[in-house]
Design goal:
With 318 residues, the protein is α/β, with parallel strands linked by helices. It is built from eleven helices and twelve strands. It folds into three domains: 115 residues, 3-Layer(aba) Sandwich (Cobalt-precorrin-4 Transmethylase, domain 1); 84 residues, Rossmann fold, CATH 3.40.50.11270; 98 residues, 4-hydroxy-3-methylbut-2-enyl diphosphate reductase, catalytic domain (Cobalt-precorrin-4 Transmethylase, domain 1, 3-Layer(aba) Sandwich). The strands form three sheets. The protein has a five-stranded parallel sheet, with helices on both faces. Strands 3-2-4-5 form a four-stranded parallel sheet.
C-alpha cells in the first residue's frame, strides 16, 4: 500500500444531491419505529428499499423480510415496501386480518392515483417503465388486467396496439432516466398526439436531481462510481447517465469492497454519487478507501438542495 508522498494525487468530485431520498428515508423510519413500538419481529414484504446494507441492518434489529404475505404469522405486523404493491396485497392482508403499514413512497402513490383517475374516465393507460420492477408490478396491479400497457423503449411504441387512440393516457415509473423517458414520450406524442399526461412529472424529484448532478460532474471525471444495488433502478440509471454525459468509465458498486482498482489505473479524478436507497455511510466508506490509496482532494459539487419530508403513517406518528 502506498504511503504519504508515495500516494498519487486524486481529485474526488462528490455529487450533491446523492443518496437517500425522502421516500426511502420514510420507509426505513417506518420499519425502525414499528420495531420500537411493536417489538421484534416485524415482517416486511420484499426488500423495504433496494439496498442490502440497509436490509441487513434492519434484519439485525429484528425485521424479517419475506417474499409474500403467506409467510407472515397472524399476530405479527407487516410492512409493504417503498416501491408499492398491487391492490391484491392489502386486500389479502385485510382478508387475513393482518395489521399492516404501507411504506409506499408518496410519489409512487401519486402515480397510482393518476392511473385510477384515468381509468375512471374510460382511458387506457400506457406505463413507461421496466418490466418486472416491483414499482411497475405495483402500479399495474392497481387496475384490472389489460387496463395498463407497458412500454420500455421508443421502439415499443410502434408495436403498441390500443383500444382507442383518442382515449389514452400515460404514466411513468418514478425512477427512470429523464432523457430516455423523454425520447419514449416523444414517440408516444408523435403517434398519439391527443394522449393525456400527468399534471406534474411522474419521475420523482430525487431521481431528476441525482441525474442532473451526475451530468454536471461526469464530463470532468476520468471515472465515476455510483454507489447502489444492481436491482436499484435509479442507481443503474445513474451509471447510464454518467456514460452518456461523457464519462465512459462509470461503474456501479455496492460498497468499497466492490471497487475494481485495476480498472481505475491512471486516473486523476473520480466522481462519486449514490443512488436514492444508498446510505451516506457507504459514501464515506468509499472515500476512505480512496484515501488509503491516493492523496485525495475532495470537492463537493452541489446542483440542488432537497428539503422534502413525507409524513409517517398515522399509527406511528404518536
Amino acid at each position: 500500500m502506498a504511503r504519504g508522498a508515495d500516494k498519487p494525487a486524486l481529485t474526488l468530485l462528490l455529487a450533491s444531491p446523492r443518496g437517500f431520498c425522502a421516500g426511502v428515508d420514510r420507509a426505513i423510519q417506518i420499519v425502525e419505529l414499528a420495531l420500537r413500538k411493536y417489538g421484534a419481529p416485524v415482517y416486511v414484504r420484499h426488500e423495504i428499499v433496494h439496498n442490502r446494507f440497509v436490509v441487513e441492518r434492519l434484519e439485525a434489529l429484528g425485521a424479517v423480510f419475506v417474499d409474500e404475505l403467506e409467510a407472515v404469522p397472524a399476530e405479527a405486523p407487516v410492512i409493504f415496501s417503498a416501491h408499492g404493491v398491487p391492490k391484491s396485497v392489502p386486500a389479502e392482508a385485510e382478508r387475513r386480518k393482518l395489521f399492516y403499514l404501507d411504506a409506499t413512497c408518496p410519489l409512487v402513490s401519486k402515480v397510482h392515483r393518476e392511473a385510477e383517475r384515468h381509468f375512471a374516465r374510460g382511458r387506457q393507460i400506457v406505463l413507461i417503465g421496466h418490466a418486472g420492477h416491483p414499482e411497475v408490478i405495483g402500479t399495474m396491479g392497481q387496475l384490472p388486467e389489460g387496463a395498463v400497457l407497458l412500454v420500455q423503449t421508443a421502439a415499443d411504441v410502434d408495436r403498441l396496439t390500443v383500444r382507442d387512440p383518442e382515449q389514452l393516457a400515460f404514466i411513468t415509473q418514478t425512477t427512470l432516466s429523464v432523457d430516455e423517458t423523454g425520447d419514449i414520450l416523444a414517440a408516444l406524442r408523435r403517434r398519439f398526439p391527443n394522449m393525456h399526461g400527468p399534471h406534474k412529472e411522474d419521475i420523482c424529484y430525487a431521481t431528476t436531481n441525482r441525474q442532473a448532478a451526475v451530468k454536471v460532474i461526469a464530463p470532468d471525471c476520468d471515472a465515476m462510481l455510483v454507489i447502489g444495488a444492481p436491482n436499484s433502478s435509479n442507481s443503474v440509471r445513474l451509471v447510464e447517465v454518467a456514460r452518456n454525459a461523457g464519462c465512459a468509465r462509470a461503474f456501479l458498486v455496492q460498497r468499497a469492497t466492490d471497487i475494481d482498482w485495476p480498472r481505475l489505473a491512471g486516473i486523476a479524478s473520480v466522481g462519486i454519487t449514490a443512488g436514492a436507497s444508498a446510505p451516506e455511510q457507504l459514501v464515506e466508506e468509499v472515500i476512505a478507501a480512496f484515501r488509503e490509496r491516493f492523496t485525495v482532494s475532495l470537492r463537493e459539487v452541489a446542483t440542488a438542495t432537497e428539503t422534502i419530508r413525507f409524513k409517517l403513517p398515522r399509527p406511528l406518528e404518536a
